[in-house]
Each structure stands twice: as structure tokens, then as C-alpha cells.
Amino acid sequence: MGDIVDTAVAAGSFKTLVAAVQAAGMVETLKGKGPFTVFAPDDEAFAKLPPGTMEGLLKNIPRLKAVLMYHIIPGKLTVDEISYLNSAKTIQGQEITIEPHKWWQFHMNPKINDANITSKDIVTDNGMIHVLNTVLMPNMELTCPVCGMGFMNTEAMNAHTKTAHIVEKTPEPMPPAEVMPVAEKAPEPVPVAEVIAEPIPAVEKTPELLPVVEVIPAVELPATAKVTEGVFEILLDAAGKFRFHLKAANGQIIAVSQSYGTKESAIKGIASIKKNAPISKIADLTMAGGTMPEPEPTHAAGIVQDPVFEIQSNAPDKFRFHLKAANGQIIAVSQSYLTRQSTEKGIASVKKNAPMAKVIDHTIAGT
């Protein structure tokens, strides 16, 4: 298995894309650690561009770089994981829109802007490739003509223009003075008064049924920012319902929720996962090659019991898990995994990341 660039070169159907990546100086980026998810237009997609478009881009490297970065999002996301999103921010800075498939349409792929995914889940060492039949174009009016970075509104664009590419002028040397003035002695610094902070009295915390969830409004992070801990992200789905997903420290989505009618209910769902995930047992409800006996039921509906992760399989190479609370309600489900071992690693990741994960609300207006 190679990196994103090596995989695209070996495929033979991305000659135009590879040439553009080389011209834009992005080979090192796409060979880096990542991980990245690349929506890769094939040669047929580039051939559908109006005549002269590609030639013009190759003569304008910042614009070419903007187009390429607009096809890349952070993280290593499968089509299943992408289908839980309505939009995603690219490393260029602007968002792509996602028209997800429904849970009963797993054979269909989500639509990215106006492009269809023709081949999916091409795994590389540093990310994932999904093939598109159309080239995506960012909003060039909100794209910096110097570096190719894009923005979601005029205010952010103007702030970038005023500060990002200003070159300080080197001051001209002063002519030598005929008479050197006598330098005045600098006044001695005033000693800094020592401030002693009074101790703050401890406030006794009132016990609650579920842990308090601190919701942080979503903010724009630099493209170089790295996630160092797990995070819950609250989103609006296509039906206007609230959902959330849990991302691990590497940016990968490891669990998603059901839909909720209110944001408060979604926040309570997050609190329930924070509380239940670390103490949940694992029940394997799959069959290993037909030789494994059917496990005894571990969670009867309507009866309050211990929370549990249940591993299930609906195909020989499709494994999933869901997390049930003590009342038997499913509060989180996973992506599809190819092996039971990968599913168990996903559960371990939820147990590790959920308790201390921050909560970012992407539904707040203006974020």
C-alpha cells in the first residue's frame, strides 16, 4: 500500500490530477502523515472542463492550488462516515456540501456538491481516496489570489487580506550625524509590586444524574491545527434534526448518534455516552465462520441492566457495534468494519475518547 500520490500514480486514471499536484507543489503535502480524505476527479472528469480551463489554472498556481485543496478534507473518512455529514470544511478553508444517502440506501454513495462518487474507499497509507466524475470549484471571489486559501464570508477574507501577505519595508539607513548626541541615561525600572492572590473558596458541586456537558461554539482552526483529543461534534442533518458524532484524536469518526428533535436531547445523549462508554461490557453477537455458538442474550428490552457494546454483523465482511444504555436504548452506533478485530479496536477507541471529549456545536449561527 502506498501513500495518496503513489496510489493515484499507480491507478493510471489520474494523470491530469497528478500533474496538477506536481505543478502546485503539493506532492510533499499529500505524501505527508495526514491523514487526508481526497475527492479525486479522474481524467474523464478533467476532460469535461470548459476548453482552456486547465491551461489557465496551470498558469495561475495560487488558483490551481485552491482548486486542489478544495478536494481535500482532514481525516480518513469512509463513504459511510461521510454520509453522516451535511457539509465538510476542506483544507482550502471553504466547505463542500454533502447530500447523504439514507440508512436504507447503503448501496448508494453520497453526492459531493454536484459531483457523484464513482469509486469509493480506496485506502492508502495516509488517507482515503474517493473518485469523482466532476471537478469541484471553490468560490474564487472568497479565495486569496496570493496563497489560494478560501473563506466562508467577506469579513474573513478581508481580515486575511489585510494581515497575511503584507511585506514589511526595510527601513533605509540614517545618514551619519556629524555630532553624536550624548545618550541620556535610561531611568531605572520601577520595582514591580508583588501581588498575592487570595485563595478562592471551594464551591461544593451539586451531584447530577449525568455529567455536565460543556458545549463550545465551532470556530475556524488553522489548516495546520491538530486534534489532540477526542471531540463530539453536534450537526444538523438533512431533515433538520440534531445529530452528533464522536471523533478520535486522529480526526476519524468512531461513533454516531440517532437523530434528536432538540439540541438539548442531543447534549443529553452525549452525556449518556460519556457516562456509559467507560463501564460498558462487550457482547459479541456475531458468528465466527458458522462455528461459534449463538451467544446468550445479554440485554433484555425494558429491563434496566448494565450498559453494553453489542457487536453485530449483517454480512461476512461487515461488522458494526452499537452502545446500549442501561435502559436498553441505543445511544451510539459505529461505521462498518471489515473484521471483528477492527470493531473491537473501535470500541476501545470510544471507551478511551468519549469520557474527556469536548463538545463542539456546529449548529450555532455564525460559526
Helix content: 10-25%
Structural class: alpha+beta
In CATH, the topology of the largest domain is named FAS1 domain
Distance between the termini: 38 Å
TL;DR of this structure?
This protein is of the alpha+beta class and 367 residues long.
What does this protein look like?
The protein is built from 10 helices and 16 strands. It has a 7-stranded mixed sheet. Strands 8-16-9-10-11 form a 5-stranded mixed sheet, with helices on one face. It starts with a helix and ends in a 6-residue tail after the last strand. The chain is globular and about 65 Å long. 23% of the residues lie in helices and 22% in strands. It has 2 domains: 4-154, FAS1 domain; 215-361, PH-domain like, CATH 2.30.29. It has 367 residues and is an alpha+beta fold.
Key structural traits:
2 domains, seven-stranded mixed beta sheet, FAS1 domain, five-stranded mixed beta sheet, PH-domain like, 367 residues, alpha+beta, 10 helices
Write the layout of secondary structure elements.
Blueprint: H1 4-11, H2 15-23, H3 27-30, E1 36-41, H4 43-47, H5 53-59, H6 61-69, E2 72-74, H7 79-82, E3 87-89, E4 95-99, E5 111-112, E6 115-124, E7 127-132, H8 154-163, E8 215-217, E9 231-236, E10 242-247, E11 253-256, H9 263-276, E12 281-284, E13 308-315, E14 318-324, E15 330-333, H10 340-353, E16 358-361
Parallel strand pairs: 1-7, 8-16, 9-16, 12-13
Antiparallel strand pairs: 1-2, 3-4, 4-5, 5-6, 6-7, 9-10, 10-11, 13-14, 14-15
